[in-house]
Amino acid sequence: MKIDKKIIKELSDYLDEFNLTELEYTEKDTKIKVSKNNISVNNQTISTKNENKLDNQPTKTKKTGIEVTSPIIGTAYHAPEPGAKKFVEVGKKIKKGDTVMIVEAMKTMNHVPSTSDGVVKEICVQDGQPVEFGQTIIILE
Questions:
Q1: CB-neighbour burial class of residue 140 (10 A; exposed 0-12, middle 13-18, buried 19+)
Q2: CB–CB of 125/60 below 8 Å?
Q3: Full DSSP string of 104-140
Q4: Considering the entire predicted model, what is its pTM?
Q5: Is the domain of 93 the same as that of 125?
């Protein structure tokens, strides 16, 4: 079996691009798993950059309102399918339990319900953006 170095390089680039620690790729009978060591010098540099991001964005951490957070790690989607109407828009009134977004993890679409009634003040993630557990996805007034 010949290893395609281009695929491994591309997967490694995705780790950095999406700030992931592990990625698995399967095609027919080939399975490639790429992961980062969490104790490397490079990761310490990334941690420093993340701390700087927090310092540069104090308004996001101090915003008032009700935060709806992602219940899982995955990819956030604003609509049930591409081209469909978005679940929420800024200024839209929503009720507790209304779906505000879908977070896809392991090819399973997980509907994220609103935790309370309110008006959408801000949508904090872009469509198709990776999200972490507990990351704020929308803010309600």
A1: buried
A2: no
A3: EETTEEEEEE-SS-EEEEEE-S-TT-EE-TT-EEEEE
A4: 0.54
A5: yes
Q: What is the pLDDT of residues 93-115, one digit of tens each?
A: 999 999 999 999 888 888 999 88
Alpha carbons 83 and 113: distance in angstroms, whole number:
21
Chosen domain end from 56, 79, 99: 56
Could you tell me the residue range of the domain that residue 42 belongs to?
5-56
Is residue 20 pLDDT above 70, yes or no? yes
Amino acid of residue 28: K
CATH code of the domain covering residue 83: 2.40.50.100
Same domain (yes/no): 68, 128: yes
pLDDT digits (tens, 9 = 90+) for 37-73: 644 333 333 333 333 344 444 444 455 788 889 999 9
**How do strand 93-94 and strand 99-105 relate by DSSP bridges?**
unpaired
